[in-house]
Amino acid sequence: QQQVKQSPQSLIVQKGGISIINCAYENTAFDYFPWYQQFPGKGPALLIAIRPDVSEKKEGRFTISFNKSAKQFSLHIMDSQPGDSATYFCAASSGGTSYGKLTFGQGTILTVHP
Amino acid sequence: EPEVTQTPSHQVTQMGQEVILRCVPISNHLYFYWYRQILGQKVEFLVSFYNNEISEKSEIFDDQFSVERPDGSNFTLKIRSTKLEDSAMYFCASKENGPRAEAFFGQGTRLTVV
């Protein structure tokens, strides 16, 4: 019940295309859903995050869509660029004694071809 | 920009030896975490630390692991008797108080047990 399932495992997109990565969760106590970007040899860095009180959040070329009833959320990268090539992790956390603890998805390796 | 710093960047140790991984969290942060990432796999939660005590730990965090905040700035992860399967990237993270606070990750320590 603590798992976050992420797909696809890898994704290849042409420059200028749209990259879409999906995640699903079971634990209804999750109330914070961040996406992290990780470049080789680096730690995960927060890209964008959403809470379940909104269905969509947009920051520049990055958009999170959130479907609370389906317990799914997705990351859309518009106008994908070669510099976006990285591993993307969705994550989820809840309050209480687990405050801030992140449960990560399996990760998606995104390759954007020029 | 404030950042979480980890040392060493790479540690090679023999099986059965003790290792200490060090982290300096961001100075005004109150919550501290250790995560690990086995090569090619997802980031996994190990332990969270708040108010000078462990607030939560995962199944991975058994008696061989311990954490300390010895001097109010450093945050350490000790593995008492390393096993081959402890080989992984270990990430320290910290966050300030508040439900919308972002967790900042360090660059990681690559631990190789031989």
Give the topology, please.
The complex is a heterodimer of chains A (114) and B (114).
Chain A: E1 4-7, E2 10-14, E3 19-25, E4 33-38, E5 45-50, E6 56-59, E7 62-67, E8 72-77, E9 86-92, E10 103-104, E11 108-113
Parallel strand pairs in A: 2-11
Antiparallel strand pairs in A: 1-3, 3-8, 4-5, 4-9, 6-7, 7-8, 9-10, 9-11
Chain B: E1 5-7, E2 10-13, E3 19-24, E4 31-37, E5 43-50, E6 53-57, E7 65-68, E8 75-79, E9 88-95, E10 104-105, E11 109-113
Parallel strand pairs in B: 2-11
Antiparallel strand pairs in B: 1-3, 3-8, 4-5, 4-9, 5-6, 7-8, 9-10, 9-11
What do you see in this structure?
The complex is a heterodimer of chains A (114) and B (114). Chain A is mainly β. Chain A is 0% helix and 52% strand. Chain A contains no helices and eleven strands. The model of chain A has no long low-confidence stretch (mean pLDDT 93). Helix content of chain B is 0%, strand content 50%. Chain B contains no helices and eleven strands. In chain B, the strands form two sheets. In chain B, strands 2, 4, 5, 6, 9, 10 and 11 form a seven-stranded mixed beta sheet that branches. A four-stranded antiparallel beta sheet of chain B has the order 1-3-8-7, with no helix packed on it. The model of chain B has no long low-confidence stretch (mean pLDDT 93). Chains A and B meet through β5 and β10 of A and β4, β5, β9 and β10 of B.
Summarize the structure.
Chain A has 114 residues and is mostly beta strands. Helices cover 0% and strands 52% of the residues of chain A. In chain A, strands 2, 4, 5, 9, 10 and 11 form a six-stranded mixed sheet that branches.
The geometry of chain A reads as: globular
Number of separate helices of chain A: 0
Mean pLDDT of chain B: 93
Q: What profile does the largest beta sheet of chain B have?
A: 7 strands, mixed
Oligomer: heterodimer
Q: Give the N-terminus to C-terminus distance of chain B in angstroms.
A: 36 Å
- Termini gap of chain A: 39 Å
Coarse structural class of chain B: mainly beta
Query: Strand-and-helix sequence of chain B, N→C?
Result: EEEEEEEEEEE
Gyration radius of chain A (Cα, Å) is 14 Å
**Strand content bin of chain A:** over 45%
Q: Which structural class best describes the helix and strand composition of chain A?
A: mainly beta
**Unreliable stretches covering 5 or more consecutive residues of chain B:** none
The helix count of chain B comes to 0
Radius of gyration of chain B: 13 Å
Helix content of chain A: under 10%
Percent of residues in β-strands of chain B: over 45%
